Amino acid sequence: MDRRGENLVRPLMLAIGLHIILLSTFFIAVSPEAKTITPPPVVIIQATELTFAPSAAAEARAKQQKAEADRKKREAEEKKRQEEAKKKAEEQKKREEAKKKAEEKKKQEEAKKKAEAKRQANLKKAEDAKKQAMAEAKAEADKKAEAEAKAESEAKAEVIEKQAALEAERQEKEKALEEAFKQAEAEARALEELKKKEEAELAVLNALASEKAAANVLDAMTTRITRAWRRPVAFKGGLEVYLRMSLASNGELVDVRVVKTSGDVLFDRSALTAVQRAAPFDEVKQFDAATFEEKFRSLTVKFRPED
Predict the structure, then answer these.
(1) pTM reported for the whole predicted model
(2) Which end of the chain is more exposed for a tag (fewer CB within 10 A), N or C?
(3) 250 and 178 in one domain?
(4) Best CA proximity match to 245, nearest among 285, 298, 294
(5) What pLDDT, in 10s, does the model give residues 218-261?
C-alpha cells in the first residue's frame, strides 16, 4: 500500500467508529427503556488534519525514482558530450580534406603555369634563333653584294665564277635556315604535345579526386542512415535490403523505395524510415551538376545493419 492509502485508512476507521457510536445512541433513545433513562451527552469529535510519516517502502521507491532520474540525466549528458565530440571530429576532418584538396589544386595550377612558361620560353628562343639567322644571312648577302659590285670591273669570267659560288653558298644557307625553322616547328609541336599530356594527367587527377570525394560522401550518407535506423521488434540480424533513392540537387530526398526486399516487411519499412530520418543529405551540394547527375540523382544503396 502506498503512502496515499496509508493516509486514508485511519480517517476511515475513525469515521466508521463515529457512525457506530451515533447508531448505538439512536437505538438506545428509541427503545422503551430509554424513556426513563437520561440520554447520554452527545460526544462531538472535532476533525483535525492528520499527517502520517511515509512508509519505508514509499521512501525506498522515492529514492529509487530519484536515482533513476539522476542516472538518465547523466546518460543524456554523456550522450550529448559524445555527440558534440563526434561532430567536432567530423568538422575537423572536413576542414583537413578541404585544405588538402586546395593544396593539391594549387600544386596542379603551379605545374600547369610552369609548363606553359617553359613552352613560351622555348617558342621565344626558337623565334629569336630564326630572326638571328635571317639577320646574319641578310648581312652576309649585303656584304656579298658589295663584293660583287666591286668585282664587276674584274674579268667577266671571274665575276661569273664568284656569282656561281655565292649562289651555291646562298642555297646552302637557305637550306640551313629551312632546317632550323623545321627544327623549331618540331620543338613547338613537342611542347604542344607535352602540354596536352599534362592536361590529360591533370584531368585524370581531377577525376580521381572527384571519385574519392563521391565515395566519402556515400560513406557519410550510409553512416547517417545506419544511425537513424531503429531496430524492429524481434529483429534477429543477418538481413539486407536494397533501396533506390532519388535526390534533388540541394540534398532533399525526393523518393525512396525498396528494389530488392529482405523478406521481412518490418525490416524493410524500418530501412525506409531510416532514410527519411537521415534526409536531407547536404553533402551532395559540393559537387557540380554533371557529377551530381551521374552519381547522386538516383542511387541504389544496400542497407545491412550490424547485428
Answers:
(1) 0.35
(2) C
(3) no
(4) 298
(5) 989 989 999 999 988 878 888 999 999 999 999 999 999 999 99
Q: What is the predicted pLDDT for the residue at 153?
A: 78
In a domain, 212, yes or no: yes
Cell of 264: 521481412
* 169 is a domain residue: yes
* Location of C-alpha cell 611542347: 191
Tell which of 216, 251, 284 closes a domain. 216
Q: What are 289's three cell numbers?
A: 551538376
Radius of gyration in angstroms for the set of CA atoms belonging to the chain, rounded to a whole number = 51
Return the number of other C-beta atoms located less than 10 Å from residue 143's C-beta: 10
The grid cell for 222 is 550510409
Mutual angle of helices 265-278 and 156-228, in 10-degree steps: 120
Domain containing 274: what range? 229-303
Domain contains 264: yes
262 in Cβ contact with 241 (< 8 Å): yes
Contact 196/88 with Cβ under 8 angstroms? no
- pLDDT, tens digit, for every residue of 109-132? 998 999 798 999 888 996 987 889
Angle at CA 9, nearest 5°, toward 7 and 11?
Answer: 80
Amino acid of residue 185: E
Q: Does residue 71 belong to any structural domain of this protein?
A: no
Determine which helix (DSSP H) or strand (DSSP E) holds 302, and give its type and residue range: strand 298-303
Residue 205: its pLDDT value, please?
47
**Strand order from edge to edge, sheet including 253-260:** 253-260, 241-247, 298-303
CB atoms < 10 A from the CB of 111, how many? 13
- The residues facing 253 across adjacent strands are 247
Q: What is the three-state SS of 218-268? A: HHHHHHHHHHHCCCCCCCCCCCCEEEEEEECCCCCEEEEEEEECCCCHHHH
The pLDDT of residue 27: 66
28 grid coordinates: 438506545
* Spans in the chain with pLDDT lower than 50: 34-37, 45, 47-48, 50, 202, 204-205, 307
Residues 235 and 189 occupy one common structural domain = no
